[in-house]
Amino acid sequence: GDAAARPAAADLMVKDMVLRCVYQLVQAAATHIRSGWKAVLNVAQIAARDPHDQIAEMGFHIARECAQHHGPQMWALSAVPVTVDGEAVEVVAVTGLEYFHELIDCLSEFAVGTAAARRPRFALGAIDTVCVAGAALGAQVMQHSAFVEDAPVALDDQPLYRVWTPVLRALFAVVMHTDDLEVRTRALDAFYRVVMTHGAHFSPLLWAHVLRTLVFPMFADLRDPSASRRFATVDDLELWFSTTLIKALRHVIALYSAYYPRQLSLSIMTEVLELLVLCIAQPSEVLGKVGTLCLHDMIRANYAKWDARAWTLVCDTLARLFNWSQPRELFSVAGAAVTDAEANGQSAKSMPVIVPQVRRGVDPTHASNRPSPLRTGGSGVDMLPSTGEETPSPGTANGDTDSEVNGNVANIEAIATPTLLLLPRANAAPDAKPDYVYITLKCILQLLLIQTVGELFGIDVETGAPLADSAANDLYGHMSAHHLFVLLDCLDQSRAFAHRFNANHTVRRKLVEMGVMPTMPSLLKQETGSVLMELHILQHMHADAVGVSFAKGRGLSMVAERQTVVEEVDDRLSQLVQHVVLQYLGRNSADAKRRVVSMANRLDASTTEAKKRMVMTAAWRPSILAVLSYILRTKRSTNEKLPFQAVVSRLWRDLVEIVGVAVDAGDRDVVGVVQQIMNAVEI
Predict the structure, then answer these.
(1) CB 622 within 8 A of CB 463
(2) DSSP line for 386-416
(3) Which residues are registered as beta bridge partners of 521?
(4) Distance of CA 469 to CAs 315, 465, 548, Å?
(5) CA distance from start to end of the chain
(6) How many CB atoms lie within 10 A of CB 10?
(7) How far apart are CA 331 and CA 339, in angstroms?
(8) C-alpha–C-alpha distance, residues 494 and 362, integer Å
(9) What DSSP assignment string belongs to 158-214?
(10) Which partner from 52, 68, 595, 674 sits 20 to 30 angstroms from 507, CA to CA?
(11) Angle of helix 266-280 relative to helix 285-302, nearest 10 degrees?
């Protein structure tokens, strides 16, 4: 044993002596090393792999000494001519650049090498040192008299490309191949700090290179998680995303917001939006929430900078997500027919782009639905226990369900994925139905998208109350009528789909009988949320056109544009108001008589029928309040196309019934608005 130990000890002493000699040589004779820098850095790199910590530490000190104090001795700058379109252009060249690359490789060994996992302290120090070395050489390059930021030279001839590419690649490697969370987070933050800080000097070619070869590939595992060795289950994917890629995604949005459109093109914006779609379209509610939140942040931070082309990209992206996440499987799994518009809107494996045209009438050709598990914590479909009685009463036909009645509301709205769950869940129930999981994800995404639209326009889609957000009206003012109609089509198809499903008791009952759904499902939240947002947008467009705008200072050009589509808006708004009134009154059609709850049931609030009416009345209360409040607002209009008396006369009978329903529900707000309308009528 002693004989074997002595050679090891002797070997350790030799290594230590060699490293100390090299360290002293660097400190004392750096100006004379010249071509010996490669050997010095190779010694330090080999030391990083040594099993003895003291040897690795000596090697790290050598590498750090070279990076922090001896850059000018390792490389020098000069101006060299390159030919561009037949003309000579001077660019900055780095003599000894190979030593800079050797230095980055040496430090990378400490950060992500074979022994780096055992030495996180050295890994963290190496990450910081890589950034210091890059910043020092980058500053030298930009201070050189021959440096020109916008020099029309090839990417390989750009000095900043030669400086920052190895630095960013080293940090990228740490992010992608290190298991230590602290080290990975430090590298991720350093990567985006470098790009954010120095990106102002990047050429468009360098920006495209960095984004397409380093930034976007960080998310490559999301394109096909089942093909990645990194993830065995959805839970592994969520862990990686929650610890690393959430930050990365937010950094991407921050980069885009800081540099668009000055240095980032419309094609880069397209790729950023595709990245968000990729994140949202994962088989995970967590990823769907994060993706939609980042999409919201991107729109909120940049809407004022977008032109018509950029808005078209954004609205098309929303339309694709709305269309794709429409839970058509609720019908197809049950063997029910899907309408032509719904069938053509989406397949489970594709996300078509929809660019609707401004037209008259309501045309539900786009899907839209997104409640907010971000705030409510629910899924998209309300799961309701069956009471045994399945006669489509007016209450249940309009979205009321027994599960809501009993307070057992489990929304099942979730996100869709290109394939039906690419990865299994580690803790999934053994009897979990794939159809149920898939449909639930799509329903959740519908609600998330509706909530995102609501937050963008400053409206709580559950209560109709305005959010504390002063930018909502400003965002609306930056959108053209065409782009608003894209969102309206999405919302309208979401409403129409949810209403059709809620009214189809045969399909809902069959889903339970087949074991796809554990209890009676409903899309009431989807229907009421999409209606509320559709009302909000249409009322603002209508108000601008007829002179009763919700916000002061509307530009003449915007008012004129809204006036060109006032008939389209009026048609849509009229149909939507009729729908809201019918649902609030519990009617199936305009010709049907309102179902009158008996006095006994009114007094006995415990009856199932009374509970159903209470649920429906509460669900449609925000929408009916929005309708009535806007009718009262039109009293101020001087536009001959919108006579207040005519509006009230069309709803006069309904107003009386609305008061009755509101009184039954004890809703003083609705009663008060109706009284104001009646008092304003000129008899």
Answers:
(1) yes
(2) --S-----HHHHTT--HHHHTT------B--
(3) 383
(4) 21, 12, 21
(5) 112
(6) 10
(7) 10
(8) 12
(9) -HHHHHHHHHHHHHHHHHHH---HHHHHHHHHHHHHHHHHHGGG--HHHHHHHIIII
(10) 595
(11) 150
H or E segment and range at residue 89 = strand 87-95
> Does pLDDT of 512 surpass 50?
yes
Nearest to 423 by CA among 290, 291, 237, 245: 237
| 261 or 6: which leads in pLDDT | 261
Distance CA 521, CA 260 (A): 44
Q: Taking the model in full, what pTM does it have?
A: 0.82
In this predicted model, what pLDDT tens digit does every residue of 469-506 receive, in sequence order?
656 668 998 999 999 999 999 999 999 999 999 999 89
- Pairing relationship of beta strands 87-95 and 382-384 according to DSSP bridges: unpaired
Q: How far apart are CA 584 and CA 671, in angstroms?
A: 13
Q: Cα–Cα distance between 295 and 273 in angstroms, integer?
A: 8
SS3 assignment, position 425: coil
| Contact in structure between 55 and 16 (CB atoms under 8 Å) | yes
**CA nearest neighbour of 673 among 620, 619, 637, 626:** 626
Phi, psi for 672 (deg, rounded to 5)? -65, -40
Q: How far is CA 27 from CA 21, 39, 43, 99, in A?
A: 10, 15, 15, 17
CA dist., res. 261 & res. 257, Å (int): 9
Ramachandran angles phi, psi of 356, nearest 5° = -75, 160
R_g over Cα of the chain: 32
Within 8 A by CB and 6+ apart from 507, the residues are 330, 331, 334, 336, 501
Distance CA 538, CA 459 (A): 14
How far does Cα 253 stand from its chain's mean position?
Answer: 10
Token representation of residue 284? 């995970």
What is the DSSP code string of 11-53?
Answer: HHHHHHHHHHHHHHHHHHHGGGTGGGHHHHHHHHHHHHT-SSH
For tokens 């309308």, name the residue: 677
pLDDT digits (tens, 9 = 90+) for 236-289: 777 888 889 889 999 999 999 999 999 999 999 999 999 999 999 887 888 889
Report CA torsion sign: 283, 284, 285, 290: negative
* Res 553: pLDDT: 63
